[in-house]
């Protein structure tokens, strides 16, 4: 999937790299201060042609990611504004029927996602009969079907849909990228393919942060007010001890993050480490009200036999009715031990997978009497990422086990 997404212009899946540029992107936004005039000129030129001096691809990709996340919302996000979009599409359809309206308005109703009726922001999939679905809706439909234990179908024609039955429609993706789109900040129109750069680097109304953010200034506001704010910003004139206080707070959150990574590094030096790929498969409980849960086959790590179980939304009765999706998991020791077995464990994404999971280390002392952990959250970045896992047939992750020896 990841290879194909390159052609989508931006790509809907952030992947592990997506998390990093977000921080970088903020820095770029703040640093862009002096280039205001150039930005304005380029913005003016945007209407006719692509502005000169495109930023390098890597920078642009990072910017895109941030843009997608912040301004436009994640392209994989489930449909949120059905109503408004539906109205717009209806109006466009009416205009098309009347033979009036601009070409782009008529195209809008032709190229929009048949589920959320929005113009797709990234990849576009089609059912075997050609009905278009944006990546977010497509993945959402697959995840819903999995939760209801049904075959996913096209909402338009009810034909079966799956990752192998549906293919992307590059022509539609490219056509959509040429359609005009409104800047979320200044409300001016730009071709979609140029919008991201405009919102990220050129829009005078884009949200920026004060350059004294590093010493604690919380100001953020439209770019055209930035110079005035920065000239009047109180932070550079704060006394040393005032600044120390602010910096202490900031250090603390950094320290927390460093602690996590340091503890992972020190775990890596343990004598007994094991890791394995685990495959969660969906099952149903045979209760009166059946519930979906996931379980892996037995596997051996550190010479012991284990099983992992997972559940969706903490076994909420109808997880398919909720937009929020979470996964929690439990590690069970299946073999007998002669002495308590103290372990740290960590679940991360599997190889070849692009789901974003933050590392969290859990600890447990396994004994013959107490051989299963509580359900602990699998820290997936958000519901969209969670749907990516649920939409797949099996959930593939990688488990690390560290034996703590006293
Ligand atoms: Zn959609
Ligand atoms: Zn269809
Ligand atoms: Zn703008
Ligand atoms: Zn400031």
Automatic annotation (TrEMBL):
Chief site of localization: cytoplasm
All residue ranges annotated as the TRAF-type domain in the record: 159-217
Taxonomy, superkingdom: Eukaryota
PROSITE patterns membership: ZF_RING_2 (PS50089), ZF_TRAF (PS50145)
Molecular function (Gene Ontology), one example: zinc ion binding
Subcellular location: Cytoplasm, Perinuclear region
InterPro entries: Sina-like_RING, ZFTRAF1, Znf_RING, Znf_RING/FYVE/PHD, Znf_TRAF
GO CC, alphabetical: nucleus; perinuclear region of cytoplasm
Residue span(s) of domain RING-type: 113-158
Transmembrane segments: none
Keyword tags: Cytoplasm, Metal-binding, Zinc, Zinc-finger
Keyword ATP-binding in record: no
Zinc finger (TRAF-type) boundaries: 159-217
Similarity field: Belongs to the ZFTRAF1 family.
Xref: PANTHER family: CYSTEINE AND HISTIDINE-RICH PROTEIN 1, ZINC FINGER TRAF-TYPE-CONTAINING PROTEIN 1
Quaternary context: Interacts with LGALS3.
Protein name, per record: Zinc finger TRAF-type-containing protein 1
């Amino acid at each position: 999937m990841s290879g194909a997404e390159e052609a989508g212009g931006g790509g809907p899946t952030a992947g592990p790299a997506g998390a990093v540029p977000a921080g970088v992107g903020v820095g770029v936004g703040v640093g862009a201060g002096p280039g205001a005039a150039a930005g304005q000129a380029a913005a003016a030129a945007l209407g006719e042609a692509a502005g000169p001096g495109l930023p390098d691809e890597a920078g642009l990709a990072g910017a895109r990611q941030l843009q997608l996340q912040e301004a436009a919302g994640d392209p994989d996000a489930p449909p949120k504004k059905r109503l408004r979009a539906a109205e717009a599409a209806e109006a466009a359809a009416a205009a098309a029927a009347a033979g009036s309206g601009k070409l782009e308005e008529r195209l809008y109703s032709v190229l929009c996602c048949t589920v959320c009726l929005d113009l797709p922001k990234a990849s576009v999939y089609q059912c075997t009969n050609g009905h278009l679905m944006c990546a977010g809706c497509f993945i959402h439909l697959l995840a819903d079907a999995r939760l209801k234990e049904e075959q996913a179908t096209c909402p338009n024609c009810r034909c079966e849909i799956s990752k192998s039955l549906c293919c992307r429609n590059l022509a539609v993706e490219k056509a959509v990228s040429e359609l005009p789109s409104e800047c979320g900040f200044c409300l001016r129109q730009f071709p979609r393919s140029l919008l991201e750069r405009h919102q990220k680097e050129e829009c005078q109304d884009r949200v920026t942060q004060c350059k004294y953010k590093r010493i604690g200034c919380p100001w953020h506001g439209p770019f055209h007010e930035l110079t005035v704010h920065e000239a009047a910003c109180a932070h550079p004139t704060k006394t040393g001890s005032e600044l120390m206080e602010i910096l202490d707070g900031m250090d603390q959150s950094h320290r927390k993050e460093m602690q996590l990574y340091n503890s992972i590094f020190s775990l890596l030096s343990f004598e007994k480490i094991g890791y394995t790929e685990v495959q969660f498969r969906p099952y149903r409980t045979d209760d009166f009200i059946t519930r979906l849960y996931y379980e892996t086959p037995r596997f051996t790590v550190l010479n012991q036999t284990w099983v992992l179980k997972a559940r969706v939304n903490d076994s909420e009765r109808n997880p398919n009715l909720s937009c929020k999706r979470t996964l929690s998991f439990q590690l069970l020791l299946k073999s007998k031990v002669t002495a308590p077995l103290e372990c740290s464990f960590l679940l991360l994404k599997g190889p070849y997978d692009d789901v974003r999971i933050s590392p969290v280390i859990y600890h447990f002392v396994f004994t013959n009497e107490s051989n299963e952990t509580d359900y602990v959250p699998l820290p997936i970045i958000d519901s969209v990422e969670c749907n990516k896992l649920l939409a797949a047939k099996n959930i593939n992750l990688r488990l690390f086990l560290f034996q703590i020896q006293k």
